[in-house]
Design a protein that fits this description.
Elements: E1 2-4, E2 8-11, H1 18-25, H2 28-31, H3 40-57, E3 61-66, E4 72-80, E5 91-97, H4 106-120, H5 136-144
Antiparallel strand pairs: 1-2, 2-3, 3-4, 4-5
């Protein structure tokens, strides 16, 4: 599975993605809205969940890499919504970017691409995103994607 945009490649996980993902997931500022920093075991489990989700459902959080140089940018993709939310079942789009990738429009570009894939390839009728009320960066991405409250 591979999705390409003008500047990005979204693809399934490789073992070599674990190191940059672990570095990104150890940054408290990046992880403040995502449940806190992750241990190496949690990072490895994240990859296993992504692999399993794609094999079973055809969707997962994928790796984002920059087309120009192959640099690791972060992750973005679709997942079944969390059971604790009152409006299950739903499909969630989510993103997590390395700090060096912030402010460049990568989150919006990646999320738009995976949402288009969800609507066309997976035949989804609706895709949801959830964030904290004070996470204005993710709210701005959601607005650029045309999402509404």
């Amino acid at each position: 599975m591979r999705i390409e945009t003008d500047r990005l490649i979204l693809r399934l996980w490789r073992v070599e993605d674990l190191e940059p993902f672990a570095q990104m997931s150890a940054d408290p500022e990046i992880m403040q809205w995502l449940g806190g920093v992750l241990t190496l075991d949690q990072v490895q489990a994240y990859k296993v969940r992504a692999d399993t989700s794609f094999a079973e459902l055809g969707m997962c959080r994928m790796v984002i890499e920059r087309r120009a140089d192959g640099a690791f940018v972060g992750s973005c993709g679709l997942m079944p919504g969390h059971e604790s939310v009152p409006f299950v079942p739903y499909t969630d789009v989510g993103w997590r970017l390395a700090r060096s990738a912030w402010g460049q429009g990568y989150a919006s570009e990646a999320a738009a691409a995976v949402m288009a894939d969800g609507f066309t390839r997976l035949g989804l009728d609706e895709i949801t995103a959830i964030t904290a009320q004070i996470n204005v960066r993710s709210q701005a991405v959601m607005q650029r994607l045309g999402m509404r409250r």
